[in-house]
Design brief:
Number of strands: 0
Shape: elongated
Strand content: under 5%
Order of helices and strands: HHHHHH
Helix content: 55-70%
Low-confidence stretches: 1-9
Keywords: Membrane, Transmembrane, Transmembrane helix
Structural class: mainly alpha
Radius of gyration: 21 Å
Mean pLDDT: 80
Number of helices: 6
C-alpha cells in the first residue's frame, strides 16, 4: 500500500513528533523519579505529591508536541502513553511499583493529560505549531510578499 509523502503508519499521528514527545516525557519521568528521595528528604510534604506532579508534567510535555497532527488530542494521548510505556520496565524492577491498579490509573492519567494537552495546544497555540512533514510551505521564508521590507524594496524599484 502506497502512502502519500507526509502520512505515517499511525494515520493522523505525526509519528516523529510523537516519538520526540514520548522521549521527552520519559526523560521527565526518569529525572523526577531519581529526584524523589532528595525532594522527600528536603521537603517531606512535597515528597508526598512529587511523583504525581512529575507524571502530570511529563504527560503534559509529551502531549504538547503535536506537530502537524490532524487529530491533536489522539496524538497527545499516544505521545503521553508512549512516555509511560518507556518507563514501565524500570518501574517493574521496584516491587512497590507493580500494583496493577496504580499502573492502570497512571495509564488513564497519561491518556487524559496527553489528550487534553494536545487538544489545548491545537486550540490555543495553533500559530506556534512545529513544522513537520505533513504540511510545509513551498515558498522560502525570506520571500514573503507581505513583509514591510519587501514592500519597501518594491517601492524603491528593487525586487
Amino acid at each position: 500500500m502506497h502512502r502519500p509523502s507526509g502520512e505515517r503508519a499511525l494515520g493522523s499521528i505525526d509519528t516523529p513528533n510523537a516519538v520526540r514527545g514520548a522521549s521527552t516525557g520519559f526523560t521527565v519521568l526518569l529525572l523526577g523519579g531519581l529526584l524523589m528521595p532528595l525532594v522527600a528528604t528536603v521537603a517531606p510534604p512535597l515528597g508526598g505529591v512529587w511523583l504525581t506532579a512529575t507524571a502530570i508534567l511529563a504527560f503534559g510535555i509529551a502531549g504538547a508536541r503535536i506537530g502537524n497532527s490532524a487529530l491533536p488530542a489522539r496524538h497527545g494521548a499516544v505521545a503521553a502513553v508512549g512516555s509511560y510505556l518507556l518507563i514501565v520496565p524500570l518501574l517493574m524492577m521496584h516491587s512497590a511499583s507493580r500494583d496493577p491498579l496504580q499502573m492502570a490509573m497512571t495509564l488513564v492519567a497519561a491518556i487524559a493529560v496527553g489528550a487534553l494537552t494536545g487538544w489545548l495546544k491545537a486550540r490555543i497555540g495553533s500559530d506556534q505549531r512545529e513544522p513537520g512533514p505533513v504540511a510545509r510551505s513551498s515558498a522560502p521564508p525570506h520571500r514573503a510578499s507581505g513583509t514591510r521590507v519587501t514592500q519597501a524594496r518594491r517601492r524603491r524599484g528593487r525586487r
